[in-house]
Structure formats: structure tokens, C-alpha cells
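Inputs:
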Amino acid sequence: MAPWDADLTERTINVFSQTAEYALRAMVCLAQQREDRSLTSQELAEATQVPPGYLSKVLHSLVRGGLIRSRRGVGGGFILARPADTITILDVLNIVDPMQRITFCPLGLQSHGTRLCPLHRKLDDAIARTEEAFSQITLAMLVNEPTLSPSLCELPAPNPKPRP
Amino acid sequence: MAPWDADLTERTINVFSQTAEYALRAMVCLAQQREDRSLTSQELAEATQVPPGYLSKVLHSLVRGGLIRSRRGVGGGFILARPADTITILDVLNIVDPMQRITFCPLGLQSHGTRLCPLHRKLDDAIARTEEAFSQITLAMLVNEPTLSPSLCELPAPNPKPRP
DNA sequence: GTATAAAAGGATCAAGATATCTAATTTGGG
DNA sequence: CCCAAATTAGATATCTTGATCCTTTTATAC
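Outputs:
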């Protein structure tokens, strides 16, 4: 950060990228649907409040990443590629914005071969712990968790447009 | 991330900003010095392998943040403002690139008042745990930790230029 | 006081991430 | 077959971060 002498006006997120946030919102929305129910890019954009054009890109990369499937044409849309209890937060992050582990000294210090100095060791530990935590949380957990706050988004009224 | 269709060529860091990395390197270098020894921006830039012009900015914001002190003129430079065992990684991050906690629903959902939905609750938990971890690690720990890798940087040969 | 060494500050530039828009392609329905 | 709905794609604009350069200010030494 530190946009020098900038005004720090309302930013919501900086530790996860905006793109990661968008992807997670969309995935949770999809996980909330019935098995056979697909959502269009438009519907998802409204529900998640993500710029429609941009969400298309994000969804596309999720398709390429194998987490969701797409169907073109009328009645098409996006749908989870696997059951919601087999997709973790980490799976999503790894596609749109993988956390870069620190595997070697960022300064090219020959003296420590592959070993990290204490600073980078600690930084990488933190990343590792976060990865570990996210690998334990499935979309199903997020959707089913008993909570006072309805999960993520008021969906666009699961309107009765069932598809065969 | 997801520079679309970009080539992913060697990026070292994305969960912490480049600026944060630079600031931490500099702080560790300063912590390695004897109490009364100050380092110039030049010396620090060499030791930490950070672009000199940019490091100046970073150092300046650390000064404004009260973590280091600066002296102008010949024989000047930068020095820690407090003992190294009272400055944590979190202190540094909070100045150059504070981790933005999620305190309210990023979608402006009126339904959950101040409560977070499961997704954002988990994300914020992760941030919180990382903050907690970093608040426990002081610069002194990083410098003194017995390790096989010398701490961070081969310093510019603590040359004998003692100042009164 | 003058010269010199250093930080502070400002303006500007480059790159990456984010966002938008428009065309192209696929798919299903009449 | 043709139309409409939807994804895919490519090109482009915008904003933030990272980086550079140059001038100004401050402090020390002579």
C-alpha cells in the first residue's frame, strides 16, 4: 500500500485481491443453488454485486480451473463442477490468485542456500498457516453453517425457472 | 492477480506488498546495528537490494510512523527509534501496508447488520490470526534467533565509521 | 561562511491489476 | 434454418503500486 500522501479513502480489502473476493462470492452463490440449477453470468453479477463484464472473466478462469462448468446458449449459465463439500476456499484462491509461498531468499543470497532467513521464514509460516486454514473450509460449510447472517447474498429470488 | 493470459513470470510476493517486504528488510538491517550506529539510505539500499530512490520513500514513511529516526547532513542516516525488542513485524506492516480487517459486509447487505456472513467471517479470522502472529515477533527475535542462515542480509561490512 | 553530505519532497513514469466494451462463438428453440 | 440467449475473446481504458529523477532543505566539518 502506502499510496504516498494519498487519502486512504475507503478500501475494503488488501490482503486478498479484489478478484479473489469476487470469485469467492460467485462460488458461494453457486453453492447455494440446487444441484441442477445453473446461474447466468448476469444473475451472478447482480447477486454478488460484481461488475458484470469483469465477473465474466473471473468465471471463465474458474471454468478453465475446473471448479465450475459452463453451458452456452439459452438456458445456459454456470454450475459447480463438483459437490460443494469437495471445494475449498483454497481451491478457489489457487485459481484466481494463488498465495505465493516464499521458497527461497528474495534477495539472491548465496550464503543461505535454500534456507530462509528468520524474517522470510516467519512470513512464509504465516502464509502456510493461512493456506492450511483455507484448505479446511469447504463451500458447503459456508453455506450450511448455522448463522444469524444469511449466507453471503440475498439471491435473486430463486425464481422458478427450472431447467431439465 | 490473474493477469489474464499473462505468463506468471517470476513473482515472488503477492500476499504482502513489495513495499512491506522492503520496509521489513530495512528494519531488520537497522536492528542488526549497534545501538548508536546509523545507516544511510544508500547503505540500506545496498544491503537490502532495494531500489535506492524507492527505499527513501519507504524510510520516510517509517520515520513519520515513529519507528525510526532520521538525521540529515553528513554522518546522518537512519536509526531505530526504540529498542529492537519492542518493535514487532506487525508494527512495521501497520505503517507501510496495514492489513485491512473486514469489519462489515463488503456487499452493503442491510440484512446482516454488523455481522459478517460465514465467508467473510472466515476470511477475517485468517487475517486476525496473521496479525496476532506478527504481533508476537519482534525485530530482536529475528536478529538473535539461532539459525543456520545469517540474518537477512550480508551487511555492508560494518565498516568502522563510528559516530559520536 | 562555504562546501559537502545527507534526508525530504515533488513531479513524473512504468507496470500490473481492475474494469469496460464490443465482437465472435456456441447453443437451444421455434 | 434462423433467431435469441448466453459464454468466450480480444482490445482498451482506468487506477493503484512500484520506481526514477531532480530539486530543496538540513546538518556537519572545515
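Remarks. Residues 1-4, 6, 40-42, 56-57, 59-60, 63, 70-78 of chain B lie near DNA strand C (CB under 10 Å from a C1'). The two ends of chain B are 49 Å apart (CA to CA).
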